[in-house]
From TrEMBL:
Protein name as it appears in the record: Uncharacterized protein
Feature: compositional bias, Basic and acidic residues: 47-62
Disordered: region residues: 47-76
Keyword Membrane appears in the UniProt entry: yes
Amino acid sequence: MAAVAWMSVAVALGSLGLAVLAWCAFKVWLGVRRFGRELERTRRRLEPKQSALRDELSRLDEAQSSQRPGEGVRSS
């Protein structure tokens, strides 16, 4: 009879442990969803600045490539 009681306790503790793991997994899943939304919002906010920076870099690259090699500024 005592073995059946220990077996019931073991099954109950195992079930409780799985419930705790499921709760933790659910909290992680919610956090990942929230993080994904935050990343998407940040991406939308940074897109205009990123495209402006990309345009400025291409203008600088074009200006640099139009210079002859000997026309650079020298430092002493």
